[in-house]
Amino acid sequence: MNQLVVCSCGQQFMAAPHLAGRQVACSMCGRPIIVPSLPSVGEHAAASPIMAQPVYNHASQSPFEFAGTAQPQP
After folding, report:
1. Which residues, in sequence order, are CB contacts of 58 under 8 Å at separation 6+?
2. Digit-coded pLDDT (tens) for 43-54
């Protein structure tokens, strides 16, 4: 997967995966830029787990009541 690389001059470009860890020249100013290495799948998965969040809509009951909609019990 291509990754976004930004030069100190502000130029942005997409770098191909085979360039990860290599030095390339900026297409705008010619300065050398090192394309960051992508973390391996195992490292990324262990570092930041993705947790599913519940989805609520107006038709379903939300775990939170909006202010003014709940009536106090007598």
Report:
1. none
2. 545 555 555 555
For residues 35 and 5, is the Cβ–Cβ distance under 8 A? yes
Partners of residue 49 on adjacent β-strands: none
Tell how many helices (H) and how many strands (E) occur in the chain: 1, 4
C-beta separation of 34 from 21 below 8 A: yes
Mean pLDDT, rounded, for 49-60: 53
Question: Would you say how long the chain is, in residues?
Answer: 74
* pTM above threshold 0.90: no
The CA distance from 26 to 28, in Å, is 5
